[in-house]
From TrEMBL, chain A:
Topology versus the membrane: Multi-pass membrane protein
InterPro entries: SecD/SecF_arch_bac, SecD/SecF_bac, SecD/SecF_CS, SecD_SecF_C, SecD_SecF_C_bact, SecF_bac
Database matches in NCBIfam families: 2A0604s01, transloc_SecF
Keyword Transmembrane helix assigned: yes
Keywords, comma-separated and alphabetical: Cell membrane, Membrane, Protein transport, Translocation, Transmembrane, Transmembrane helix, Transport
Main function: Part of the Sec protein translocase complex. Interacts with the SecYEG preprotein conducting channel. SecDF uses the proton motive force (PMF) to complete protein translocation after the ATP-dependent function of SecA.
Gene Ontology CC annotations of this record: plasma membrane
UniProt protein name: Protein-export membrane protein SecF
Signal peptide: none
Subunit structure comment from the entry: Forms a complex with SecD. Part of the essential Sec protein translocation apparatus which comprises SecA, SecYEG and auxiliary proteins SecDF-YajC and YidC.
Key word Membrane present: yes
Family of the protein in this entry: In the N-terminal section; belongs to the SecD/SecF family. SecD subfamily. Belongs to the SecD/SecF family. SecF subfamily.
TrEMBL record, chain B:
Protein source organism: Methylophaga muralis
Predominant subcellular localization, coarse grouping: membrane
Membrane-crossing residue ranges in chain numbering: 457-476, 483-503, 509-528, 549-573, 585-608
Protein name: Protein translocase subunit SecD
Domain Protein translocase subunit SecDF P1, residue spans: 229-287
Domain SecD export protein N-terminal TM: 1-103
InterPro entries: SecD, SecD-TM, SecD/SecF_arch_bac, SecD/SecF_CS, SecD_1st, SecD_SecF_C, SecD_SecF_C_bact, SecDF_P1_head
Domain of life assignment: Bacteria
Role description: Part of the Sec protein translocase complex. Interacts with the SecYEG preprotein conducting channel. SecDF uses the proton motive force (PMF) to complete protein translocation after the ATP-dependent function of SecA.
Cellular component terms per the entry's GO annotation: plasma membrane
Subunit structure, interactors included: Forms a complex with SecF. Part of the essential Sec protein translocation apparatus which comprises SecA, SecYEG and auxiliary proteins SecDF-YajC and YidC.
Gene name of this polypeptide: secD
Keyword Nucleus: no
Amino acid sequence: MHLLSKETNINFVGIRKFALAFSAILLIISVYSIVTNSLNFGIDFTGGTMIEVGYPQPVDLGEIRTTLEQGGYEDAMVQNFGSLTEVLIRLPVIETENMAEISNQVVALLQSEQTEAIEVRRVEFVGPQVGEELAEDGGLAMVYALIGILIYVALRFEYRFAIASVLALVHDVVITVGFFSLFRLDFDLTVLAAILAVIGYSLNDTIVVFDRIRESFLKMRKAEPLEVINTSINATLGRTIMTSMTTLLVVLSLFIFGGEVIHAFATALMIGILVGTYSSIYVAGTAVLLMGVTKTDLMPPEKDDGEEVNPDGSQV
Amino acid sequence: MNRYPLWKNLLVVAVIVIAIIYAMPNLFGDDPAVQVSASRQNTVDLQLANEIESTLKQAEIPYKGVVLEENRLLIRFSEANDQLKARELIQQSLSADDYIVALNLAPNTPPLLRSLGAKPMNLGLDLRGGVHFLMEVDMDTVLKQTLESYGSDIRILLRDKTIRYTQVNVNGDVLTFGFREEADRDAAIREINREHNEINAVIDENADRPTVAIRLNEATVRETQSLALQQNITTLRNRINELGVAEPTVQQQGQERIVVQLPGVQDTAQAKKILGATATLEFRLVDFENDVQDAINGRVPANSELFYHRDGRPYLLHKRVMLTGEHVINAASTIDGQTGSPAVSVTLDGKGARIFSNITRDNIGNPMSVVFIESKIETQIINGEEVSVRRQLPEIISVATIRDQLGKKFQITGLDGTTEARDLALLLRAGALAAPIDIVEERTVGPSLGQENIDQGFASVMIGFALVLVFMIIWYRVFGAVANLALAANLVLIVALLSMLQATLTMPGIAGIVLTVGMAVDANVLIFERIREELRMGNSPRASIDAGYAKAFSTIADANITTLIAAIVLFGFGTGTIKGFAVTLTLGILTSMFTAIVGTRMVINLIYGRQQRPKLSI
């Protein structure tokens, strides 16, 4: 079965103004939301305590809230997690001598209201200092990954390709983070990992397109850069869509069957893959074009210009 | 052109076969088991194994087998219920101070595979349940304590030199001495710097009166911190032994933190109490005038107490404590300059040195002992209620004869070897100034959630995998089927590598595998799309296959190397859970390059290589 029965010839670069406008709108919404709304940081970054308890029967969240309030935990956030019998309680950092003991005290308090034993499914406590460090390390990881990629692409291709690919990556990251901000989704350590994976994935996509652009520049000697880039995007389109589909399939499987704990992670990957696929088709190529790459930039210096190369790449 | 040489085919087959062998242990699951290991100088041996076996037989608890491994005994059961009953029974029959009895899981690997060294993957705490603590040593307090003990030293020094000071203060990382006269201040600086090269004494310019500011120099700060960390790791290890955890991890992380992982532990409140307990030291004189044997039989003299050495020997010690651990500044293992044998050098603070010197002067030739006292917190049932009781566990760690009047620095010699010297030094430090330690991070996963995570992780890998298989067959037909073979081989390779490296599989690790499954087909998609393209240009099928692989290669390499960069950065910056994701992603990228390029080419060659003008099903 062929997704694209013939060679496609869609003028992707021709509609670059629309694509740019679309990206710009998404970016503006994302940045605006991140600035005004900030992110719903999980306790990994803010510090605090998170407790997941399982009750034998479905419980009333209101009662749990009242119990916690009476016990002195006014700032507790209580919600169902996955099912009606499972409850997730989140507490901000409470400055006391023994911050690590809070989880045990809360569980004891909840147990005192119940006749049947409740099950502690998960406890996470992150001290404020550790949270700060995790956030800092996460930010640094993102920056170092981008720098590493910038250097590699600059060495393998050309500096303008490197800048274009990093632009596309920043585009993807900002929109994915913006999505989390806009919809107030939990942003924890696993989401950060997912975003780094998205960087890897989206770059993968972009590199494949760039590789083809480089190849086409050498083959299509008389063509304009716009035409070359268009042809390259079209030539790799089948692969771009196919790979995105398979990756989306497995991420979807992770989202549906992987359980509540992995939800945010899978969501970030899904958004990232969609945006990454879009950006490698519409953004990366356009960025290369706008930076004015021509075929002379990609000519291997030792190759003699006198050599005859046919449009199909065969040499005579 | 479309044939691999024999060696290449054999290589691929060999790699896959080895991978299957080493991935296999993961299929057999685990038996519930009870693990018995010895604490301290005890050993587990065949005799103990026989004793336990006869105990179990008497109680009619069915067991599958008893395995003696290095330093531990594993008793396997087929039912978790039998395991629990057996643990209770074994715990009662063995002395709690000599043996650690813990619940564990014993991998059910067949002997043939085990003889090849094949083991299943380790499961992370999020999959098997347990507690992860990150503990931080309060270095500010450690440094302050160190400064304070220098403070008491310097007071004595100044008194000896008749330099009069007015006040002493510790403020943050500075120790200050105030003086009436500038001349006194300058004399003090001279004397302090001559006596101690670990600290720096300078004029405090900010003070309105003549003042000396004393700071620890950088090397001393570093050394103090690293000793405090080592000391805490040692005490934590000792205490965790009491928790009865099968495979605990205690590891240094960075300059001031310690990671503690306790698989299978559920009662985190109890764990926190035990980890937070403290140890102390006491120096006591040995009562050699009365008979130890009498004391063992119950006739303990009024002024003495009966104690046991770590090696089991009983001693009678005087009730009066010469000195406690708070006066010990440092203890380090060294080599005795005169005899060349291993020794421990102990440094006392000023006050301690004075007391010690007075007592040792009157007791030259008599034996002295060091008692290490660990506070254990135990849960007892009193009147039907669970009560936490603090129990003190004293233990003699050294008995030595006083050869001379001892002062600030002295040596304990006559030790059996460097290991004993090192252990003794560690225990002395552990019982000395206790460095305060706090839990700064906790991650606990209950057993049912762990099992759920395993089930859901497994389901998502399998369903994702199946979806991709179907998708590829529909799209690329025979070539898709070949890519599917490669994908399956890739999955086996990842599991085999994780098992061989004995890496720990976590939930994010599973996510990494799932993502790899999705991305691994990318290389094949690239190759197949290229082949189609070549065919469209009217090239012969065999030339198309060749060109497809050749042209896609550099693209695949570029794309994978950039993803690898991201994965390696993740590994470098991530903490435990993120690292798991980075490891599987990295392994997945590497193995997929092999299976998707070399592996599929081999199969394609086998299918189409011999035909002159094959019709490609792509």
